[in-house]
Amino acid sequence: MKIQDPAPAGPEKAPASGLFQRLLPPAKPPQAPGVPPSGPARPPLPATRAPGVSQPPALQALPRPGTALAASPARALVRSALASPENLGHARQGMHGEAQRLRTVRTEAQASSQAQVEHRVHELLSRELARDLPPASGVSPPPRAPAPPPEPAGEAPSGEHPSRAEGLARPPGEAAVEAAEAPSQVQATLELIERIEVFVKSQRPALRMSLGGALAATVEVERTGPREVALRIQGHQGPLGEAHLSRIREALEARGLRLRALHAH
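^ thats the sequence. predicted structure below, dont judge the formating
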């Protein structure tokens, strides 16, 4: 077996150091201390601020075109002062006081209106009683007619009896009794009307009640509509007079109640 020798190597080349040096940037000479380096100037770094310190106005960004300017500090302070809890509490207290005042005024107006209605009812009843009752005993009776000349003694014609009481007023005792009964009749009528009004407000369909005193009757009340009733009155000593019934009608109308029917037995 024949072994061949390796081919002879060519002459070795020196490393291309010049080419490597050309590729590297040229080294800068060392600078003396205290001399600023040459070259383009760098922008200054922003100064650091302590936390909680606002940026001075000169460094604040300007508003962009088309945006509204912020409110001035004075206006912001005024708004914050107006919206403080103390001012809001004072305003709330003022509103509560005004509401209480209006409530008081409304209550007083309702009480005054109720008093006027009751006064009107009393006035109507008193006027009706004064029209129906005879004059009191303190009023002087009308003057008597001149007495006819004396007739000769003898019997009066048959069927005729002389009456000396004609044209005179009622006895004082009877007029005083009727005048004393007038306030009790007014009071009994007012009590009846108040009970009817309470019945209407209660929204009940019917009510039966027994009255004593001046009226002395049994009253049946039937609700026939909104603030409308029908009455059936049965007197214990006979039917009530027309004066009593008219007073009841007027009192109901004064209270704003409508009377559908009124039957007296």
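Residues 184-264 form one domain.
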